[in-house]
Amino acid sequence: MDFKRVYTTSKAYIILLIVALVLLVATASMAYMQILHMQKSSELVKHTLRVYNNLNILTTHYSKAESEEFRGELLKTGGSGQVFKDYRQEGLDIIDNLKNLTADNAIQVERLQSLSILLDRLYSQLQQLDAVNYKNSQEAISYKQSQKMKINGTLFHIRGLTNQMLSAEQNLIQEREKAYDSEKALAPLTLLMLTFISVLVFVLSFIRIYKNKIRFRESEAFLKNVLSTTDNIVNYYEPIFDKNNNVVDFKIIYANDCNRDYFGLEPIDIVGKQVSHVFPFLLNNGELEKMKKSYNEETKEISDRHIIVQDEKMWFQSLVTPLGNGILETARNTTSEEKAKEIQLTFNKRLEKQNLQLLDSRAFLGNIFKSISHVIMHFKSIRNEKGVITDFEILFVNERINPVTGDIPEDLKNKLVSQVFPNVFENHVFENLVNAIELNKPQEYEAPYERNGITTWFSATAIKLDDGVTVTTRDITEEKLKANELIKLNEQLVIRNSILNDAENIAKIGSFLWYKDSDKFEISENLLHMLEMETSVFEISYETYKSFIHPDDLVLVEEKSNQSNNNAIPTEYTYRVITKKGNVKHFKTNGQLLNKGEEDIMIGVVQDVTKTIEAGVELRKSNLELRRSNAELESFNRVASHDLQEPLRKIQLFISRIEDKESENFSSKGIEYFQKVKNAGIRMQSLIQNLLAYSRIDSSRTDFETIDLNLVQEKVLEDLATNIQVANAIIKLDDLPGIKGVFFQMEQLFANLISNALKYKSTIDTPIIEITSKKIAAIDLPENVIRTNKYYYKITFTDNGIGFDEKYADKIFEVFQRLHQKTEYSGTGIGLAICKKIVENHNGFMYAKGKLGEGAQFIVYLPA
C-alpha cells in the first residue's frame, strides 16, 4: 500500500506556491505604488508653487490700488471707465484661479472667501473716489481723504490675509518637498528590499518542502512498523459508487497481517476485492451501512460483533474513521474480555440467589424497625485493660437515623460512637450509657443534636443488652420550642416597644388611636413630648387635643378629619400647634379610618416638620437672592458684550489708522509706547471675551447631549495646529470616552488646557503633552468630592513645562489670579477659571498638581 496516498496531500505545496506568487505580486505592486507616490508628491509640489505664484500676482494686483498714479487714472476715466473695469476683471480672474487651485484646502478656501469680500469692498471704494466732484472744494478734498483712508484700511486687511495664505503655502511647499525627497530616496531601497524578501521566501519554501519530504518518508516507515506489530486488525477501504454516485460497497486498499492471524485471510489475496465479498457477515448486522454513513457524513462509528471462525466464537470491537478518500477500520479482539464477562455473570447469579435467601430472613425484622418512628441503635462496649468502658462500637442503627443526621445506617456500622457523635462526652450521654450497663438499670435522659446550624432535641432511653446497650430516642424538638415560645414572644414584645419608642423619638414621630364612638383618644409617649406635656398629668380626648391646634388651622383640621371619615382613605395634611410651653410647631398628620367590629377607629401618625418648613422658607429666600444675582449677571453680559466692546473697537480702529498713516513719523520711544497701547487694547479685548465666556457658562443647562470626546480633541488639535507646530510639541493621545454634555464647552475646556501647556512650555526640553483617560468607581474619587454618579471618567492632561508650586494649586483656578507677570506670559488669568466652571457645570470635579521645573497635571473627573 502507498501510505502517501492515505495520509498526505498536495495542499501544503499548493499553499506554499500560492504564498510565493502572492509575495512576488506584492513586491511588484509595492514598487509600483512607491513610484505613484513619488509622482503624486511631485504634482503636489507643482500645485503648491502655482498657488504661491497666483498669490504673488494677487499681491501685485491690489498693490496698484496704493499707487497714486493708478488712482489718478481712475479719477480721469471715472468709476465706470475701462481702466477700472479691466482692473476689476483682472482681480476676479485671479480669485477664480485661486479658488480652483485651493479647493482641496478648507482653511485656504475660508481665507479666500474673506479675501474675495475684501476685494469687492476695495473695488467699491475705488469706484466711489470720484463720487463727489466739487472740483477742488474743501468738502471734496475731505471726502477723498476719508475715502482713501477706507481704501488703505481695506488694503491693510487684504495684505494680512494674503500674507497668511502665502505663509501657509510656503509651509506646504517645504513639507511636500521633504515628502518628495524622502520618497525619492526610499524608492530604490524599497525595491531592493522587496526583491531580497522574494528570493528569501522562495529559498525558505524549497527548504521547507525538502524537509517535509524527508519527514513523510520517516512517518511512512514508522507507520508500517506500527501496523506490523499491532494486535488489532487495521484495514483501509475506498468507496465503490453506482451510476447515481451513491456508495454501494467498498474496495480493500490495505489489510495488515492480523487478518491472517484471526480470519486465515492473506492480506495480499484480499487487497483489491470488495468488502462485502471478503467479510459477508458485515451485511447481516448492518455494519456495512454504518461504514457508508461514516464516509458520507465523516463521522466515527463504533460496532461490536461476534463471529464463528473455525467453530470458535470470537468477539471484535470495530472503530470506523474517515481518512483521506476512504475509511480506516480498526478492529480489536475482545474475545477474552467477553468470556470473562460470561464467567462473572454466572458467579453473580449464584451470589444473587444466596442474597435473596438472606434478605428474606431479615425482611421481617427490617419491617418492624421501619414501622417504628423512633431511632433505635445498639452499641457494643469497648473496655480497656482495667475493664473500664472507654467507648462504644455501633452494631445496628435503623433507617430513622437518616432524616436526623443524614447518614446511611450501613455506613455507620462498626464505627465508634465517639467518632460519629463527638459531643457524646460533653452532654453526659456517655455517662448515661455506661450507667445503663454497669448498674443494669434503664437510663432516661434528654440530649441536643446539632446539624447545619439547626439544633434538634431528643428524649432517650438506654437499656442494657449483654455487654452492650440499646438506645431508643424520640424527637421532642416541637415540645421544647413550644415551651420556650411564650417566653421569647414576651421578650420580643418588650424589645419592640423599646425600639419603637426610640425610633419615634429620633424621627420626631408620634402616633394616636381615636375611638370615635367613645371619644377615647390614645396617643404615644413621644407625641406627648412633642406637645411638651408630662405623661402622668395628661388625660386626653379628641376635644382636649384640639385645644393645642393653632386657632387659624382649626377649620383645616376639621375639614380634613371629616374628609377622611367620609372617604375612608388615608389623608395627609400639615397644621400648626401651640405646645404647653407656648411654642408654635408644624405637625404633619397621616390618618385612616378603620372599622373594628361595631366601632370606628381612626389611626394615624404625627411628625414634627417644623425644621423642614423653616428650611423651605430659607430656601425660597436663597432662590430669590439667586434670581437677583442672575439678573445682575445678565446685565453685566449686556454691558460687556456691547457697551464695553464698542469704545474698545473704536480705539483699535484708530490705533490701526495711526499705525498706517503716522507710524513712519514716530520716534523709537514713540514706537515702543504705541506698541504698548496696541498690546493693551488686544489684552483688553481678550479679557472682555474671556469674562463673557466665564459668565455665560450656565450651570442649569438642560440641553446636554451625547458627545464623543475624541471628536472634541480632534477639532481642538486642528485649531491649534499652527501653535503646536511652532512650539515643535509632541502630543500623546489616549482613546477618550463619550459623555453627556455641551460640545462647545468641552471644546473650550480642551483648548484652554492644551493652550496653557503650550504657553508655559519648557525652554530646554521638547514640549510633550499627554492626554489619558480611565474609568473609575466613585469610591476612588478624592474625599472632598461630591459624588453624583456610580462611575466617573478620569481625564488627565500632563505636560513637561515650567510647572508651578503645589501651594498655588487652588489659586490658579480663581478669576484674574496669575502666577507670572503679564510681561513674562500673555493671558488674562481667566482661562483656568473657565475650565473649572465648565467641569462643575457637567457635575464633575477638577484639580491641578505641579512641581516647579517638572511640569503640571490637570485632572478632570466627569460622570460616566
Automatic annotation (TrEMBL):
- Look up the coiled coil feature and give its residue ranges: none
Keyword Cell division, does the record have it? no
Q: Write the Enzyme Commission number(s) for this entry.
A: 2.7.13.3
Q: Which UniProt keywords apply?
A: Kinase, Membrane, Phosphoprotein, Transferase, Transmembrane, Transmembrane helix
Q: Does the keyword Transit peptide apply?
A: no
Gene3D superfamilies annotated for this entry?
A: 1.10.287.130, Histidine kinase-like ATPase, C-terminal domain (3.30.565.10), PAS domain (3.30.450.20)
Q: What class of enzyme is it?
A: transferase
Where in the numbering of this chain does the Histidine kinase domain appear? 639-864
Residue ranges annotated as transmembrane are 12-33, 185-207
Q: Which PANTHER family match?
A: PAC DOMAIN-CONTAINING PROTEIN, PHYTOCHROME-LIKE PROTEIN CPH1
Q: What is the protein name for this chain?
A: histidine kinase
